[in-house]
Amino acid sequence: MIQLTALITPFRSVHSIPLFFIKFFPFSVSSSTSEESPEPSINHQLFSLLSHPNWQKHPSLKTLIPSLSPSSFSSFLSQYPNLNPQIALSFFNYLSCVPSFKLNVQSYASLLRILISNNLFRVAQKTRLNMLKSCETRDDAVFAMRLLLDMNKYDEFKLNVWAYNTLLMCLSRFVMIEEIKCVFDEMLSDLIKPDIYTFNTMINAYCKLGNIVEAESYLSKILQAGLSPDTHTYTSFILGHCRRKDVDSAYKVFEEMPKKGCRRNVVSYNNLIHGLCEAGRMDEAMRLFVEMGDEDACCPNVRTYTILIDALCRLDRRAEALRLFDEMKEKGCKPNVHTYTVLVDGLCKDFKLDEARVLVNVMSENGLVPNVVTYNALIDGYCKKGLVDVALDVFDTMEPNNCIPNVRTYNELISGFCRINKAHKAMSLLDKMLERKLSPTDVTFNLLVHGQCKEGEIGSAFRLLRLMEENGLAPDEWTYGTLVDGLCERGRVEEAHTIFRSLKEKGIKVNVAIYTALIDGFCKAERVDFALTLFKEMIEEGCSPNACTYNVLINGLCKQGKQLEAAQLLERMPESGVKPTIESYSILIEQLLKESAFNHAYKVFYLMDSIGHKPDVCIYTSFLVAYYNEEKLKDAEDVMAKMAEEGVRPDLMAYTVMIDGYGRAGLLHRAFDVLKCMFHAGHEPSHYTYSILIKHLSQGGLDIKTKASSINIADVWKVVKYETLLELFDKMGEYGCPPNTNTFNSLATGLCREGRLEEASRLLDHMQNCGISPSEDMYTSMVNCCCKLKLFEDAARYLETMLTQGFLPCLESYKLLVCGLYDDGNNEKAKATFFRLLDCGYNNDEVAWKLLIDGLLKRGFVDRCSELLDIMEKNRLRLSTQTYSLLLEGLDRTDNK
Q1: β-strand partners of 83
Q2: How far apart are CA 140 and CA 136, in angstroms?
Q3: Which residues lie closer than 8 Å to 841 by C-beta, 6 or more apart?
Q4: Distance linking the first and last C-alpha atoms of the chain
Q5: SS in 3 state form for 706-721?
Q6: Beta bridge partners of 8
Q7: Where are the PPR repeats (predicted)?
Q8: Are 8 and 82 in contact (CB under 8 A)?
Q9: CA–CA separation, 150 vs 437, rounded Å?
Q10: b or e along 539-555 (b: 16 or more beta carbons within 10 Å of the residue's beta carbon)?
């Protein structure tokens, strides 16, 4: 066996090692102890392994490699600087062939230290170039640049023109213009004569920034040096002009190339095609694509196709994009990850999620690894469709496929949860981001603020504002716009107006969205005159109203019975440069129909149609409502026929209106026919739809003797008998649309709101007997109902069931239970419940806000709040500074009462 000492080169004094090694690679030349080594066990094992002459075949190699990271490998080389260079190089080359191991810039730098200290300059020069090619980030490039410029002080390892060019290209890849200028100046001071590649790299770097003036100064240097511009030179200028959005100038350069004896290549075409696509000149881009082969015998490559496919998808011409994708494959041009990602994103925007998922699988089958952008597109598609659980499944596959989620991944999931009113789940993702050392952005916080406002949690939204500031982010107009809108939705218009007035002092420009939200708020508060004053102020301040602003005002005027003023405002819209939308007409038509002014409504209808606005489902639904209210069933059916003729498909509300209309006419069989159509069209009936059906089933005298039409829809769940629900199930089965999870959830929600826990429990049992699993929302309704009825043991049991089934209960349920248990004197059970929720992964700040501040402190449970705060602290659950301050203020304020 070779002795370990044979692996070490003869000892050299520290003074013989160049200074740059000490600067960039601090190490001791003496033997390192276990305490000094960052990873002594791995390093020692690796050193022992490399002592074997046939280490490549040693059985411990395969077990050691998975535990070795680029940083630990760099640590090993730094710990053993006198390692035999040939063994170090052999092992380095071996690692470069291991698919699961990726050498980074620090790994190359550590090897360089060993090679140069052993005077292996030829191999070191090759390693130097490979190090530059390995740079993946700006930080990598800066590290490499500083190291190489420092090494350049030594004659044995000075940078030549090739090395300078490679370094410049590395920096250009990240558009690091200041660093590029620094290196170019260093090259000149080093008396290295730039060649055409040098100048082209400089030109390309400036052109990437659209800085044509600086790029042209280097073109002059090419001519001064007696060199000739080549294809790369002109192609960079095409790119530069396109970056400046001056596609016509780019076209001129493109057309000049053959005249200058310079052949256009695929990159020249790609740059111009991309510029045309970005300028919206799609037809010209497609024409250029077709001419490639004829003009320059130039074949489109994967980037050419991807540019066009991407542009077609962004223009909603996705069918053409798919045809081009098929053509691409037929011509033997293999799509890359970017191509697939563009198509996945396009399919997701069309909500063709199954097709998008299949495409991701096809990628993997073709040996392509989906990247974070691919996964984000798929996750975003599922979230926008409301299928957040499926999006989470996709999320869970990312890391096993060596893809690390980024901030955008989390933002899309947060947006998805907020969209389905699960802000507590969105908040829990905030903690997961921080655990991964990902910094939440203003977009993250704006989404969370929106989610809290949407659920009526205005207090939590304001706390997020302070949390946002604590994270070094400044709330912007979108943050405050969400708060203004949230307050207005809750009727708190004066508070919204106060925030609105404070924005100028904060240096935040009030945008059209904030004005519109506030105007809408005052309209809904029946203060239309003040809304009109705001509208006038808005115009005077130079903030142009959009169609949405006009629509909320038109709606406000109509609600106040001022149809004439609403119609006049509608007429003035084009004069102000704002084109009325379908909604603008729809609001007026709906109000006229409510007053049975059918003739006037039809006049507006035909006016709208004459200026090119085709009636949508909302307008047709307004007519349906009006005719059903007038008991004009035949007219309503004519409207339905007209919808079918115009290709307008009924939506959830239209179907519900039809069901109600037939129910009122005593035609329940027709109502259930519509329900069947509704299911087949892919629309899930809402709680309101089921309330309508229950109301009309009640008309048969099963529950009450009054007419169903006289029952207030809100009272349906107070009077319905359980037998009627069973009758509904039978009818649904009879018409081929058997009850599903949504059905049971809707019915349980209605019963629980009225405190009818016994019937809701029977419904839950019936559901499980049918083999249908209760949903998260159904359990939530049961828990909240139990708490209101002070049946805390039952509530705790339902909560535990939720957790065992993988559901995360909303914090409102926990607040009701914990506060209820304390109120009932069951302190130990309350504490145990709180302990349980701390393990569930909620955001700690939100737990403190909703349970401690909004729950216990508001109810006067000061000691209990303090007790639970101690539990959080003992469990090392970190709270933000502002949350902790709020708690201390609350405890102190309550104590002093």
Answers
A1: 8
A2: 6
A3: 428, 431, 432, 808
A4: 83
A5: CCHHHCCHHHHHHHCC
A6: 83
A7: 160-194, 195-229, 230-264, 265-299, 301-335, 336-370, 371-405, 406-440, 441-475, 476-510, 511-545, 546-580, 581-615, 616-650, 651-685, 740-774, 775-809, 845-879
A8: yes
A9: 32
A10: eeeebebeebbbbbbbb
Instruction: Please determine, for residue 705, whether its predicted confidence score (pLDDT) is greater than 60.
Output: no
Compute the average pLDDT of residues 133-160: 86
Own/partner long-range contacts of 299-305 (Cβ < 8 Å, ≥24 apart): 299/266, 300/266, 300/269, 300/333, 301/266, 301/270, 301/333, 302/328, 302/333, 302/334, 302/335, 302/336, 302/339, 303/266, 303/270, 304/266, 304/269, 304/270, 304/273, 305/333, 305/335, 305/339
717 contacts 756 by C-beta, under 8 angstroms? yes
> Rounded distance, CA 437 to CA 407, Å?
10
The pLDDT value given to residue 101: 78
Is the pLDDT at 348 greater than 80, yes or no? yes
**Can you read off the two tokens belonging to residue 431?**
């903690």
For residue 700, the model assigns a pLDDT of 57
User: Whole-angstrom Cα distance, residue 76 to residue 691?
Assistant: 71
State yes or no: pLDDT of 21 exceeds 60: no
- The H-assigned helical ranges of 665-740 are 668-680, 687-697, 716-719, 722-734
SS3 667: coil
- Interatomic CA distance for residues 35 and 44, integer angstroms: 13
Q: Is the alpha carbon torsion for 637, 640, 644, 650 positive or negative?
A: negative
Specify the pLDDT at position 22: 32
- Name 15's Cβ contacts closer than 8 Å, sequence gap at least 6: none
CA distance 366 to 372: 18
Mean per-residue pLDDT of the chain? 88
The encoded tokens of residue 749 equal 């929600």
